[in-house]
Predict the 3D structure of the following.
Amino acid sequence: MGTRIGKEVSIGIAEAAMMADVDVVSAYPITPQTHVVEHLSELVADGHLDAEFVPVESEHTAMSTCCGSVAAGARTFTATSSQGLALMHEILFIASGMRLPIVMAVANRSLSAPISIWNDHGDVMAERDTGWLQVFVENGQDAYDHILWAFRVAEDHGVLLPIMVNFDGFIVSHVVESLEEWSPEEVRRFLPPYDPPYRLDVDNPWTFGPVGIPDIYLETRKAHDEALLGAKATMVKAWSELADVVGRQYYPVEQYKADDADIVFLSMGGISETCMTAVDELREAGKKVGLVRLRLWRPFPFDEVKAALGGRKVIIAIDRALSTGGPGGPVASEVKAALYGLETRPQVIEFIAGLGGRDVTVGDFKQMYEKGAAVAAGGPVPGYELLGVRA
Amino acid sequence: MSSELTNVFAAKMLPQRELFSPGHRACQGCAPALVMRYMLKALGPDTIICNSTGCMEIISSSYPESAWGVPWIHVAFENSAAVASGVEAGLKALMRKGKIPQRRITVLAQAGDGGSLDIGLQAISGALERGHDMIYLCYDNEAYMNTGIQRSSGTPFGASTTTSPAGARSFGQSTWKKSLAEIAVAHHIPYVATASVSYPFDFMEKLKKADAVRGPALVHVFAPCPTGWRCPSELAIRLGRLAVQTAAFPLYEVVNGKYRITQNVPHLKPLRVYLESQGRFRHLTDDLIDELQQGLRERYAALVAKAEASQE
């Protein structure tokens, strides 16, 4: 066990990447990701991390550079947010299609316009179908552990896919949290060196990124889909190995006081911790309510979602993004799709909460609960609600 | 530097090995495909190519076939310089950390004129500014040929393309060709050169010089496209030569900021001899030909002045 100290989460993420002994960091500054890459450049400048820090001229180049370095065989890390993630969009598909295991921390932030530096999940939801593995963390310890875990998963020869570790901008990225760092020995036990099966090697030349004519494109998409779906087993195995090394156990879908709950909140990311406080207080008031948190977003954990939510009366789904002109929130939409095949389907009520950094308080969760309870009592199921929006 | 490089002037001493294989899907008379071939004869097998989307990418890499005998990566259109930055950084870190053996490996990024002068310019500027030890190669056939002969900022004044068509109210491209070499020089990098597929030994020597410097180097190579220029395919090499002899594409190099014209043309040929066999210029009036010739000669005179100033 390492020592437990107080540390800003962004600094913890940078130091976890250092513990992974990354070879290349290529990044472009964007709020609220900056502290991660500033600290990595300091670690390189001070000689604590032996890596090439490539200070590129855009996020598009950051992701392109990552493709080049990981194809050369180098363990590669980057971080971004919001507009920066959007600028990477084109290359995200290529990184995953070419099976390049890049690890990227995404400090989730809303998308312009209007420009907003504050937190929601609008940025990553726009990248949902890029073919990357995607997980969400809730706090500093989660974030630190999942950077090391992400390398373990992405670089596994049965996976070879890039991965996004999503952490909420400001409300997670900039807070000081109690954090247990890993010892070098623990890292050695958990994370083997990157050993790419294919790399740009002059002694064994490979062609990376060829043309896919109609005869082959379809098969490559199938292979990519299967790789993504198949990665879940490796992720679960790596979580279990992580538990063996540092004693913390993570799952694709996690529950809090939900065993006997008829009504459950469903959330993803840092907001879950506020929700836990609300659940505690509601439980004290005698309400049978719990929380189900999605940690894994891609591949979507259909079986775990069905197991955790099937049999409930009401799901209160909380989204941090709005699919404008569409079904409301992307999380609720996918959860409903997962539950559709059940014989007895729970009712799902949807809240789009905390867009653009709007506070979501314990009181807000209690109000959402009251609306869920009304549906549980036989009331009508309302359409999605933008929580706290002024008329 | 150049004494050890003179062997490339003897054709018989060029490596026999074809690292860019025949059997690819380029058009008849494609000069960019010759650029690829010469490029790898000059640089040899210890080279990694980062290829932009474009003609040379699609004709060489239709899965499961590949024309490339060296490691090759294609990511997207506008980012070959960025991909090469990553390859260079990755190799540097791996060698320094003892994860792969120390060894001289050439990293080359390449794109056409559209992928360089237009959509790729930012990535090139970033890579040159950061000082990566790499070569950037632009093969210039003066339009987006892969997508069907649309104009780029490398298309010459007066040329008719599918997006700068000559018509009742248009004489074709109304803007002047952007100078990639001058943009590269403004980054204060150690080596910049223009070259032409029609002067293969000069081109190969320049690539070897670009390879020999530590830090970024840029080579802008002229490569006629008979399909896009609407000319007989057997004229590709002759047109490349005429482009030099009429100052449409002068050959020079800039070593640590010092200019040298590598193919002196004391008596420029009339531009008409270069234009007349190309369908893309067939609509030009005498006045427009004069305007184009005058503009090219002014630019050439300015280049000569820079070369003379560099000798002082």
Q: What stands out?
A: Residues 18-311 of chain B form a domain with the Rossmann fold fold (CATH 3.40.50.970).
